[in-house]
């Protein structure tokens, strides 16, 4: 192309110089009228087409020579390459295209959504984002977090939340989609305002969680960086994700008149979704007391006083004092009293053992020892192994 421009400029200069040296012949006096008629009917379209066909012809020939070097007919090579040149990802069968999209990570889906309207509609489908939500967030995001998100978008904050974020984050890719959506929506005939991504979509919820602007309810093991007063406990908190460090920040419920404690740098292995749909200020209804027997793993609500929220504490069902622990003669599971042991404390500690009424269990305790609430039996090996993994290295007093 540079060579073509250089040649044209050089020819024009040469022709201009030649006019200054030699006088025009008599027949050239009619050239102005001829040139006007010529430029009036002249079209650059044929010139552009010829240049384009020449350039693409050369490129196509080179490509065809590599793809099928045994073929000697150059015209067939050009036609074959031109047909392949016009193919796009949208020409793939639906099953193949869906398989490709399912393999893409969240960032890839966001990039693919910027290509065209058809791909955008495919990339925001909930069935594609459901897998990403399950793989990354299912262990710490539960029904309570979803209800919080529904309330959040109902107040009109969901769209702004999902579209905030830095350019190198997942939410940052959505900022690149807005100009495309606004341009295309301006040509549409409808008057309804278009939101992208839809605020009620899984893509919007996923990007809101990634952005860290949306605080969601979950539970934290060994809160406040493993403070000795909270060892082997799990407390409710509001969490915000930090994409830079891949950790979380927590805001705990206020303790009486104290300000809400906060904690940062919480790793994924210290978090879980609330296993029961019970507020930390409400007593959980125990529905497992009739089946508890020695050796069962349990969690029990406990709080320091009436103004504090409940936390879940790990323990095991023990034997009565009158039982020697022999399974052949043990009848502890038939007794109205259930013994709960917290073996992280030494045997002389007041926190080591507590008794619960199997038939008429309510909140029990006092201001000195705290108040014990509802009980849930642990049936999952994963839950039990999690508690054992965070077991303190030393026996507590």
Q: What labels would you give this structure?
A:
single chain; 397 residues; alpha+beta; eleven-stranded antiparallel sheet
Question: Your description of this structure?
Answer:
The chain has 397 residues and is of the alpha+beta class. It has 14 helices and eleven strands. Strands 1, 2, 3, 4, 5, 6, 7, 8, 9, 10 and 11 form an eleven-stranded antiparallel β-sheet that branches. β6 and β7 (311-318) form a beta hairpin. The longest helix is centred in the first third of the chain and has 23 residues, at 45-67. It starts with a helix and ends in an 8-residue tail after the last helix. The model is unreliable at 12-22, 27-52, 54-72, 164-168 and 178-193 (pLDDT under 50).
The biggest beta sheet is recorded as: 11 strands, antiparallel
Share of helical residues: 40-55%
**Weakly predicted, low-confidence segments:** 12-22, 27-52, 54-72, 164-168, 178-193
Please give the alpha-carbon distance between the first and last residues: 84 Å
Count, helices: 14
Instruction: Indicate the proportion of strand residues.
Output: 15-25%
Shape call: elongated
Give the integer mean of the pLDDT values: 78
What is the SS-derived class?
alpha+beta
Order of helices and strands: HHHHHHHHHHHHEHEEEEEEEEEEH
* Radius of gyration, whole Å: 37 Å
Count the E strands. 11
Topology summary:
Layout: H1 2-21, H2 31-41, H3 45-67, H4 74-85, H5 94-103, H6 106-112, H7 117-123, H8 126-137, H9 143-154, H10 158-162, H11 170-186, H12 202-211, E1 216-221, H13 223-226, E2 233-242, E3 247-251, E4 262-266, E5 271-272, E6 297-303, E7 311-318, E8 337-341, E9 353-357, E10 364-366, E11 370-377, H14 381-389
Antiparallel strand pairs: 1-2, 1-5, 2-3, 2-7, 3-4, 6-7, 6-11, 7-8, 8-9, 10-11
Helix pairs in contact: 3-4, 6-11
